[in-house]
Amino acid sequence: MPTRRSPWMTDDLDQLRLLARTFLARESVPHHRRWAAQGHVDRDFWTRAGDVGLLCLSVPEEYGGGGGTFAHEAVLLEEQARVGDSAWGNGVHSGIVAHYVLAHGTEEQKHRWLPRLASGEYVGAIAMSEPGAGSDLQNIGTRAIRHDDEYVISGSKTFITNGAQAELVVVAAKTDPSQGAAGISLLVVETPSAAGFRRGRVLDKIGLKGQDTAELFFDDVRVPATNLLGSEGEGFGQLMRQLPQERLIIAVASVAGIEAAVDLTTAYVKDRTAFGRELVKFQNTRFTLAECATEARVTRAFVDECVQAHLAGTLDVPTAAMAKWWSTERLCRVVDECVQLFGGYGYMTEYPIARAWADARVQKIYGGTNEIMKEIIARSL
Fold first, then answer.
1. Which of 118, 126, 127, 196 could form a disulfide with 64 if both were Cys (CB 3.0 to 4.6 A apart)?
2. Which numeric CATH code is attached to 124-233?
3. CB atoms within 10 A of CB 350
4. Catalytic residues
């Protein structure tokens, strides 16, 4: 579909888009089916991405990153969606985990961990959700009790993106269980040296088949007290301050997914025939695509506005929630309409539109369910 240039794009970002498109075409696209079968990207894919400078694009150069802004992360997210890459968990690694360290770490912590994330030596994960606490972060059960100069972490996490490969995990845990949300802290676990750390199953999901989503277990894992991000009891506030960027990441990927679905479907209906004429010549096909293209355009305008606000430091929590809710709802609706236009082929996983349909559904769940988004929005009214 015709797309206008986003107002936050620059010549520098155009060059990044070309780099990302070339890299993904060569290193990602040929492996999608294999990654889906094995449940994760190849581990050396991370280091190859680091070698060309595609990791931690918005982390300052002094810490090994690309020295860019959120716009750089957005361009890469869009290119992933354009080629149908739902396996590489870089949005979590670069856009979320690295920014917990950047925003809340000491200089020593930032110099120790960020270059490793930027090179791909470490894969990052954020461990919030638990078997009994998904969006309800205040009631997590994982504990981190201090003993002298160490914390001892006990508990379990689930639905952890990059969990099966991560060498650096930011863990949300209760350092003072009596204080509710005020007792939550964030600790960094370096998994290669963490005795008592175990990985459970790589979970078998409806979609995102190539993205490793795992269970993690912490059986009295001891980490140095210097692995605490910020101060004790600050964790819930730290999570809340980072969630708007996480939700904007989801919104950016969602609108790019909408546009990719419309492009795929437009090409298909122009090529496919039924009853002696191309599908695009049927009024129902044209009207459906007209609706989908309009929803893509409207969603793009809103998400672009949110990206600009985030770059200016003015994106607030309710607006980020609106972006996440609106874009993911539109994604699921548009992709479903596109599957219908593909007919039976739209249900076959060899077709990208079928995989896009399965991948889309979780967007309404993670990053805070869309019901939580509506509650956040309602509280601001």
1. 118
2. 2.40.110.10
3. 8
4. 246
